[in-house]
Design a protein that fits this description.
Number of strands: 10
Shape: globular
Strand content: 15-25%
Low-confidence stretches: none
Largest sheet: 5 strands, mixed
Mean pLDDT: 96
Length: about 290
């Protein structure tokens, strides 16, 4: 049996769902593969390099800023599962002007994506918004700060259902990042100097990941059941809404990537970071 470490670098369905399906459906075992799922959310990127990683956004940024030659071998989705959530008085992205926004650091993948989306709404993240930087977690502290008025809005991820939280708390969903910016953001990537692309363990991991994607596409009710195990505050109807709006239309059935769209994304990220861009076909090997 082959063994490989697989690191996620953010919590929630966005990163964990496909690996969870592959594990629960026995696809790793079928491949003769033992996968040790590692929490790399607070790891330095050098430590993540020792593992295969689900976090394609962080891999792409690392390639642009650190020069590590990450290779993306399978793409789960190019729609980042992050949302701007406003309190009772913030009802639109325009209302963020002059307000306090809890958000990831600018050099982190989610923070970089947030800045790109803010700019696309005519907001300068350094001048028009008071950014309160915090480390990603399960976003419960962000909800607490929205309730007590410490912040006016928060940039939250897939450990919660944004519409459900907004309805319960009297908040407002201002925007979904996936509507405004597409980038291959979760899947399977490796640093070939640490985990060779053609190694049996890496290839088995990719096959299991792609099989899980196929299962999700062909069995939506099963996928919804797995989603509900993550978002257990949500009713069946809310889970179905989440699945139909954010997962089913946008998660790949085969792990392939659109290189033209990926190039636009890499160029946008490089421009935001102020670094040279890179050729998408050198990063994303999961093209048709």
């Amino acid at each position: 049996m082959h063994t490989i470490d697989l690191a996620y670098v953010g919590r929630g369905i966005h990163e964990e769902l496909v690996a969870y399906v592959a594990d629960q459906e026995g696809y790793f075992e079928d491949e003769g593969l033992h996968v040790a799922l590692r929490d790399g959310t607070r790891w330095d990127i050098s430590r993540v390099r020792d593992c295969a990683t689900i976090g394609l956004g962080r891999a792409a940024l690392s390639r642009l800023t650190d020069g590590f030659e990450w290779a993306v071998l399978s793409v789960n989705t190019d729609r980042p599962l992050f949302w701007f959530l406003g309190n009772a008085t913030v009802t639109s992205m325009a209302d963020l002007r002059g307000r306090r926004l809890a958000v990831h650091a600018p050099q982190s993948p989610p923070g970089c994506f947030a800045r790109i989306v803010l700019r696309r709404h005519g907001l300068d993240p350094d001048r028009d918004v008071q950014c309160v930087v915090r480390h990603p977690g399960d976003y419960q502290m962000d909800l607490r700060h929205l309730r007590d008025g410490s912040v006016d809005a928060a940039y939250v991820g897939s450990t919660l259902g944004p519409e459900q939280v907004a309805e319960e708390e009297g908040f407002h969903v201002l925007a979904w990042v996936g509507d405004h910016f597409q980038i291959p953001t979760v899947g399977i990537a490796v640093d070939p100097t640490r985990n060779p692309v053609k190694s049996p363990a890496v290839q088995a991991l990719v096959r299991a990941n792609q099989r899980a994607l196929k299962t999700m596409a062909e069995h939506p009710d099963l996928t919804a059941d797995y989603i509900s195990s993550f978002l257990d505050r949500m009713t069946n109807q809310e889970v179905q809404h989440y699945h139909e709006h954010y997962i089913r239309p946008y998660y790949s059935c085969d792990g392939r990537v659109d290189l033209k769209a990926a190039q636009h994304a890499v160029d946008a990220v490089a421009a935001e970071l102020g670094v040279a861009s890179a050729r998408a076909d050198a990063i994303y090997l999961a093209s048709p």
